[in-house]
Write a structure and sequence with these properties.
Length: 346
C-alpha cells in the first residue's frame, strides 16, 4: 500500500487508516473478534491506527493496546481526548480540553494502550469553556516531555484551525499538525473551508465517516429501525421523514446507479471519492469484522475518472451537507438561544 506524507509532520501513513470505534462494548466486539481485524489490517499494509479514550469508555483502547503490543513500532498510533469518560455523558472534570483533564487523560490512554508515547494526540472536539491557549500549552508540554509526538484536532471549524495556528506562533507553542474532519459524498462541507485551511497551513488530514454513518452502503434505503442503537441515539440523522434524510435517500439512489455504471460497489465508490481529494492524506475506515475489512481493502486501489467525479458533483454539489445534523459539531452560537437574543430591557 502506498504511503503518503502526513502534512509536514515527516510521518508517512497509509491512505487508509484503521478506525477502532467499533472495537469494544459500543460495537459488541471483544478482543477475540477485534484482534484478528487489527492484525489483518496491518498485514495488508495499513500502518495508521486511530482510537479515542471515549470509545467504549476506555475499553477500545485496552483492546487496541493489547493487539498492538508486539507490533507497536510498525504503527502510527493516534488517540483523542475531550468527551466525558462516563456512560451517562456527565463527568464535568473528566472531560473537555482543560490542562487538568488533558494531563490526566493522556496518562490513562498511555496505560490502556500499553505504550509510553502516542504518535498523534488529538483534541476530539472544540471546548467553548476552555481557552485555546491553555489547551495548546498543555499539548505542547506533552510533546516536550516525549509522551506525544504530534498534536492534532478533530472536527474543528476552519476559524478554530486558524486561531490555533496563530496562538501557537504568538506564544511559541507546538501547533496542531493534523485535523480529522467528517467527509463523504453526502457531507462535503469540509471542502468549503476546512480542507483549504489545512492545505494552507500544511496540516495533515485524516477524514472520518467516508460511508456517512452507513448511508453509503445502501443499508438505509429500506425501512429504518429508529429504536435500535445508533439510530435511536442520533434519530435526526436517520429518520426518513426528515427533509435532510429524504435528500440523502435520493442522492444514494442516484449514486447506486452511478456505481453500477462505473462497475464498482457503492461502498467502493464512496471510499474512492474520499481518498481522491488532494488535501486528504488518509481515510479512516471502521470495520468491525474481517469480511468488512476485506471488502474495504478490495476497493483500496479504485481510481475514479473525472467524468465520474463530475457526475458526483451533479448529484451532491461541492461543499454541500445534505443533512445539517451530520456536521457533528455546532458552535454554541447556534445551539444556545441566549447567545442570539438580547435580554429583557431593565
Amino acid at each position: 500500500m502506498e504511503l503518503r506524507n502526513l502534512g509536514r509532520t515527516g510521518m508517512k501513513v497509509s491512505p487508509l487508516c484503521l478506525g477502532t470505534m467499533m472495537f469494544g462494548a459500543w460495537g459488541e466486539c471483544g478482543y477475540d473478534e477485534s484482534a484478528p481485524v487489527i492484525s489483518a489490517a496491518l498485514d495488508a499494509g495499513i500502518n495508521f491506527v486511530d482510537t479515542a479514550d471515549v470509545y467504549s469508555w476506555g475499553g477500545c483502547e485496552e483492546i487496541v493496546g493489547r493487539a498492538l503490543e508486539k507490533r507497536r513500532d510498525e504503527v502510527i498510533l493516534a488517540s483523542k481526548a475531550h468527551y466525558p469518560m462516563h456512560p451517562s455523558g456527565h463527568a464535568p472534570n473528566r472531560s473537555g480540553n482543560s490542562r487538568r483533564w488533558i494531563m490526566r487523560a493522556v496518562e490513562d490512554s498511555l496505560r490502556r494502550l500499553r505504550t509510553d508515547y502516542l504518535d498523534i494526540y488529538q483534541v476530539h472536539r472544540p471546548d467553548p469553556d476552555t481557552d485555546l491557549e491553555e489547551t495548546l500549552q498543555a499539548m505542547s508540554d506533552l510533546v516536550r516531555s516525549g509522551k506525544v509526538r504530534v498534536v492534532g484536532t478533530s472536527t474543528f471549524p476552519a476559524d478554530h484551525l486558524v486561531e490555533a495556528q496563530w496562538i501557537a506562533e504568538r506564544h511559541g507553542l507546538v501547533r496542531p499538525r493534523t485535523e480529522q474532519p467528517p467527509y463523504s459524498i453526502l457531507n462535503r462541507s469540509a471542502e468549503a473551508a476546512v480542507l483549504p485551511t489545512c492545505v494552507k497551513y500544511g496540516i495533515g488530514v485524516m477524514t472520518w465517516s467516508p460511508l456517512s454513518e452507513g448511508w453509503l452502503t445502501g443499508r438505509y434505503q429500506g425501512d429504518i429501525d429508529l429504536t435500535a442503537g445508533r439510530q435511536r441515539a442520533h434519530r435526526a440523522q436517520f429518520d426518513p421523514a426528515l427533509a435532510g434524510n429524504i435528500r440523502k435517500r435520493e442522492a444514494v439512489e442516484q449514486l447506486t446507479k452511478l456505481a453500477a455504471e462505473t462497475g464498482c460497489s457503492l461502498t467502493h465508490l464512496a471510499l474512492a471519492f474520499a481518498r481522491n481529494h488532494p488535501a486528504v492524506t488518509s481515510v479512516i475506515i471502521g470495520p468491525r469484522r474481517l469480511d468488512q475489512l476485506e471488502d474495504l481493502l478490495a476497493g483500496a486501489d479504485l481510481r475514479l475518472e473525472d467524468s465520474v467525479l463530475d457526475r458526483i458533483d451533479e448529484i451532491v454539489a461541492p461543499g454541500t451537507m445534505l443533512n445539517h445534523e451530520d456536521s457533528h459539531y455546532l458552535p454554541p452560537a447556534l445551539t444556545d438561544p441566549a447567545l442570539r437574543r438580547r435580554g429583557a430591557a431593565a
